[in-house]
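INFO batch 0412 | record 1 of 1 | parsing
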Amino acid sequence: MSKITTELLLERAVPRSTRLRKIETLNLSKLQLKTGDLDPRLFSRLRHLQKLDLSDNLLDKFPNSLTLPDLRVLNCNNNKLEDVTALKQFPLLEELTYENNVYLTLNDDYKVMFLLENLRLLNGKDITKLANHVRRVNSRKLTSKVTAHWEKFFRDQLPEKHTAEQVKSIKKKFLKSVQTNVVYGPSSLSEFTRWRVKMIAEEFLSYSLGLELNSDTEPEEKMDENEEESTESPREAAEDVAQVVYIYNPLVTVTPSKRKRNHSKSGAGNKRSKSQANTEEEAEDVSAEPLHFLQCHSKGNSHEDFKTQLWSCVFEPVLDSGARKDPIVSSSKTVATCGGESVCLIDCETGTVLKKYKVATEEFFSVAWTTLTMVISDSRKKAHNILAAAGRRGIVKLIHVAADFCYGEIKAHKKPIATVCFSPTQETHLFTASYDKRIALWDIGIPDCDYNFKASQLLVLEAVSIPLRIALVPTCPEQYLLAGCEGGCFAWNIKLDKGQKSRTFEAIFQFPDDESLTTSHRVDGLAFLNDDVVVSKSSKPGCIYLWSWSRSFDTKGKGCQQTVSAVILAELEWSTTDMSYLTLSTCPAKEYVFCGDEKGSVWMYNLSNYTTAWSSPKGKRSERRISPTQILKWPELRLNGEQLPEILVNNVVSDPAFSYLVVLTSVNITAIWKKS
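INFO prediction complete | emitting tokens
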């Protein structure tokens, strides 16, 4: 019979408690406890336990399923522990002591530093800097060595058409060889190094060969399901991501079921042989190459999640670049992406997930950056990048990225927020567009050194249908806002010196529809190519228009509602699908337009040869549809040994200098391309 009972737990609680779920501190020291006395069923009821003292007992290990989701402090001094890997089940652990466990060594110290992202104190010592080195530098070096070992000694041993037995044999030889030959760090840490090398190698094989590995290696993902919010950085974020290894026979497929409403009208079938794919790819003028394929937004960090939709991404501005004056100089390699319950920061060059922020009950739809000048110590001021993230709950999260801290939230709407954007001229002004058919303008304020801030609503724009995309007019960003909505394209006057706080639209734009004009269509893509040219995408199959803002809308009008015809400059040739919400983006500095399709491809349009003619007062419309400069085909991926049938590109965004292209899909894969 176990020594631990409900009555004992209630009695040993500090202070004593009447219910297990209310216990936050528990002292179980000096009870001669053995591992078998720790009953997972009983401990699972300690949902709010934060401090646990198990010192001076006879424990040789921890059960794998104690389920203490909120545990922060653990004392295991004076036991007989032989292994520490089971401690990974306590992801929020900040302080850990296990002195006088004679079987534990320096290698075990490194294991817990790697496994426990939030750990600050180990046996009374601050290990923050060392732990960051272990999680980042050590892991990066070992991953590089493991990959190089495969490429040099084993890649050519695996036939293109291989059997299960051949794969099994190669795996066995590779795992043995890599653990023997990959060396890094002092010899005193050789056990830790072998442990990490085996873990990295098994994960590498799992995704490069597309087959699951049956092993007793501890899973590396962490889950924060019991905590509403969590910030992961840097190791946990890296471990949550499955870096999908692709086979560059360029072209391909991936995805389990997506939106049920897809009815593609794109005639010809999708099947093509590898030889056909290679022939076509060689014929293309390749201007970008696939760099990374990341699965970092999985629900519960599951590597089997190919259903989470990825929606929005935006590159981080460089702080010391004069970003608001020169967008090219402001280009960075770091991009924020969102989808499902998480927001990720990714280094596009290395494919490293630098940080990850999660809210278990949220589905994020949009992210946006701003740079605030904040007061730090000694009344000094310093510029910091702030990330706003919003989605299904109608709440805007404000994240100080450098501090790994979500310092506040704004309950902006009672319905989901479709998109957000900051003013380019007023750094604290944030627009939120919601399913409640309203677009709100907020002043988010500037947080003080204690992160106290005050947000206020400045304006509400009333829409007649759900706003999907918003864009501020570059020549007058403090006066006019455009919105692509479920029921058309609209413009509002947003000048704050006007009296009314709630406003209706000033203009609705008409677009060609077969033989006539219409205002009633879904506009699910909207962006400015330059100061005047607007790019908008309709749900009408194959329809992307370029039109002139200045020639379509009279800014000196009387301010009343008006229906105006968009002055069309050109139409872009695009997919004939009727799939909605595959949005577009622009790179104004390079005069490019990007839009993904229902087959995983990215359509790129270099419009630099057209913009000069369009800028003249009487510039004529291009009579023919403009064909894409290039279509980037989806490279061949093998996931769990299979090619998945359907990939939708929900969004595609380049950095301001067009060095990288980030592609967000319907199958929880972020693809990063690099311009050649």
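INFO post-check: The chain has three domains: 6-104, 129-209, 288-317+334-675.
INFO record closed
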